[in-house]
Amino acid sequence: MSRHFDEESHHRYRLETESPQTMQMIRSTLDFAASGWVVEVNLAGADASADPRFFAVGLATAEEATQAVLRYPGMMHEDERIAIRPLSREEIFSLGLRPQAVRPHRNAMRARLVAAARR
Fold first, then answer.
1. Tens digit of pLDDT for each residue in 34-71?
2. According to a count of CB atoms within 10 Å of the terminal CB, is the N or C end of the chain lower?
3. 110 lies in a domain?
4. Could you list the residue range(s) of the whole structural domain that residue 114 is in?
């Protein structure tokens, strides 16, 4: 007597028996941005000694990311914006970055200082 393995039935069984916490984790992982950028903003009218602002943006291209920062409260078209690097998958997950989201990225400044010190 041989058993026939039906992959679709097995998949349905696994989904029905998974815990709600596990299913929530699977669903939320799918909600993260596929890619993202770190965008540096220098506020218009600020003196040269002002601290730059950094944002994590859940968009695919640098151009889209620099424009999306304008949605953040207090940002203006006159502010100098530059996408300085793409975000890694690990960063996207650790930040919980959703598609098209714009959020402050406090760790970017620390990473930039460390990189400058290595030079």
1. 999 999 999 877 665 667 899 999 999 999 999 999 99
2. N
3. yes
4. 37-118
